[in-house]
Amino acid sequence: MNERMTSMILVAMLLAGTILSVTMAMEASDLGSQTAPNEELVIFCGAGFTGAMSEIAELYENSSNSQVRFNFDGLPALRVQIEEGAYADLLISPDQRYMDPLVDAGFIGEDTVEAFASNKVAVVLPVDNPANITTIRNLATPGTKIVMGIEELPIGDYALQVLDLMAKDPEYGPAFKEAVLANVVSLETRVTGIVSKVAMGEADAGFAFMSDVTPQMRGKIRKISIPEGYNIRGNCSAAVLSQSDNSEAAEAFIDLLISNDAQAILDEYGFIPLEGWEENAALPAGDRAAAID
Predict the structure, then answer these.
(1) Domain segments of the chain: what residues?
(2) Burial of 262 per CB tally in 10 Å (0-12, 13-18, 19+)
(3) pLDDT tens digits along 28-81
(4) What CA–CA distance (Å, rounded) separates 193 from 47?
């Protein structure tokens, strides 16, 4: 009886050990099959790109093993953060010229800079247009409340260049520029601040980019064009930071920016896509890749 009981106990122990071993093996197998945690791509990006880049980032995350974390701000602030040691993999700027100091200082590799769209200056108005502004000439009317960007901000610099060009033309003259600047009630550090103040009726007009009249803002603000001979065109650019530990993912994001899907999003947001992108989109897949290369 005791021998039989002992044998039964031994069998039970062996069976339990076998089950435990199998369970542990299965758990180990499951752990081994799990993918590595998602990589994080850190992008410093001009605030005016917020809507378009958020949509493009969704495309990127859906087709890769990376997650995107943005820092949207004015370019002067982003530049200072990078110079002071803040980590980023990628910088996206309204114009390549504003990357040049970072290239010169070694923060950006010049061979990684890629233009992916362009933009122009526009005058944005509240949708109800209480100041009854119909042309750019009306900006010189005394009492008109105008918001601009600080000169260090790309849109602030561009707006001043527009006014300089108009001041040189006898049709407008220096007095026009002086009158417009006399109506400026606020200088913003972000282009989104300009658009917000106009949308809320705190200003009658503001100098912004064409793309700042986003799909989300089209019921709140509208724009009037600046005559072609006076407008300024900026080349929106992206570049990989020299400090990046994730440079391959950063380069893949840049490749996405020049793809047809991203170009369509940029077009929807009012940016000027790369020349020929619509024709390229109609090509067969293999020919599209060749055209991009």
Answers:
(1) 39-118+235-292, 119-233
(2) buried
(3) 333 333 333 458 999 999 999 999 999 999 999 999 878 999 999 999 999 999
(4) 9
